[in-house]
TrEMBL record:
The gene is dps. Residues 26-165 form the Ferritin/DPS domain. Belongs to the Dps family. It comes from Aurantimonas marianensis. This is DNA starvation/stationary phase protection protein Dps. GO terms for molecular function: ferric iron binding; oxidoreductase activity, acting on metal ions.
Length: 166
């Protein structure tokens, strides 16, 4: 059974209509949950990676964590700027994330790299859909934010996939 949407907006002088703000808050809740989820997927990999090129991959995962953590703040601030209430807890993230749960038994650097690449690629695809949704709604600022996030996700995906190319 689908849960009923209960998006309540705070009063705002934001020029977008309440309907558009409400739909953008819903869109951004999904991306906030996904950003929180991916932030901790990268930390899970960072904490547990073993094997060849350990230190390089360990540091890469920490860098990816920092970049993704910045998306959390940017998305949450846009969401609240539209009058929404950010659902940024770990529990809320599990309800809102579009990502599959991260396996807790991965150890090999190659396995972490591949699994994170899957997560980054999946979120990147969802961000593309969000860009289109924001554009159709006429919310250029949310569209721009998601474009920036998408550009960063693609760069991170490049860093992950480069371990397997060539």
């Amino acid at each position: 059974m689908a849960k009923k949407d209960k998006t309540r907006l705070h009063t705002s002088k934001n020029p977008l209509s309440e309907n558009i703000r409400g739909s953008m808050v819903q869109l951004l809740q999904k991306h906030l949950g996904t950003a929180v989820d991916l932030t901790y997927q990268t930390k899970q990999a960072h904490w547990n990676v073993k094997g060849m090129n350990f230190i390089a991959v360990h540091k890469l995962f920490d860098e990816l964590h920092e970049v993704t953590e910045a998306y959390v703040d940017d998305i949450a601030e846009r969401l609240t700027g539209l009058g929404g209430q950010a659902h940024g807890t770990v529990q809320a993230a599990t309800e809102n994330s579009v990502l599959a749960p991260y396996p807790l038994d991965l150890v090999k650097s190659e396995d972490h790299l591949k699994r994170l690449a899957d997560s980054y690629a999946h979120w990147s695809d969802e961000v593309q859909k969000g860009i289109e949704e924001a554009s159709e709604a006429g919310d250029a600022l949310t569209e721009d934010l998601l474009t920036e996030v998408g550009r960063g996700l693609d760069k991170s995906l490049y860093f992950l996939e480069s371990h397997f190319q060539g």
